[in-house]
Amino acid sequence: QYDIVDESVGYDLMEEIERNKITENTNTGKIITLSDNNRYFVFKLSREIKSNILNIYVLKNVNQVSEIYDRLNTLSIIFICIGVTIAIIMSIILGQRIVRPIKNIIKTTEKITQIINQMLDRLENAFDNQSKFVSDASHELRTPLAIIKGYAEIIKKRRFADEEIFEESIDSIINETENMKNLVQKLLFLAKGEITKINTNFQIIE
């Protein structure tokens, strides 16, 4: 519904409309706000009749349309904000899901590294223990062998000249041989313990 206004209606109103510089014969028109705080879509028609110029202004109240337009703008902004928020939340969730396998890989790598380090430490301790064991075993075996050799040289040198020394040397050789036998058995026992688990029965003693 349009209102047609000519120059005979309300000079103040016409002046206010003219102040907005409505271009004549413009089909697209123009939206203006008048003093009554209403918004109007206005277009102007000009005709010359018998040397008189007649200006006709056609006005359409567009307050309701403007409110709908403003609401649509507001809704658009709200939906954009909601969309951006949802996009951010989804990107965070997807990012966490993408990063989660990488974190698991890092944790697994740390565990593997820790296990390897522990294994290397055990190997290093085993090599140290083995070196110490060989050194101690060599020392323990070298001592009775030196004693046996010493008494054997005495026997060879004096032969059967001194029966007492001969008997003492033989007894010492037998004793050291027995000691070596016991030592070898202990070494075999320890070597076996490296391969298989030894059954032990611990008891509290004084």
Q: Terminal Cα separation, in Å?
A: 117 Å
Decide which structural class fits the backbone. alpha+beta
* Succession of helices and strands: EHEEEHH
Tell me the number of helical segments per DSSP (H or I, 4 or more residues long).
3
Average pLDDT metric: 77
- Bin the helical content: 55-70%
Enumerate the strands of the largest sheet in spatial order, edge to edge or round the barrel.
Answer: 1-4-3-2
Tertiary shape: rod-shaped
Q: Tell me the major beta sheet.
A: 4 strands, antiparallel
Q: How large a portion of the residues is in β-strands, by DSSP E?
A: 5-15%
Topology summary:
Elements: E1 3-5, H1 11-19, E2 30-33, E3 39-49, E4 52-61, H2 63-158, H3 163-195
Antiparallel strand pairs: 1-4, 2-3, 3-4
Descriptive report:
With 206 residues, this protein is of the alpha+beta class. The protein is 67% helix and 14% strand. The protein has 3 helices and 4 strands. The protein has helices spanning 11-19, 63-158, 163-195; strands at 3-5, 30-33, 39-49, 52-61. The chain has a 4-stranded antiparallel beta sheet, covered by helices on one side. Helix 2 (63-158) packs antiparallel against helix 3. The longest helix is centred in the middle third of the chain and has 96 residues, at 63-158. It is rod-shaped. Residues 6-11 have low confidence and may be disordered.
Give a brief description.
The chain is of the alpha+beta class. It is built from three helices and four strands; from the N terminus they run βαβββαα.
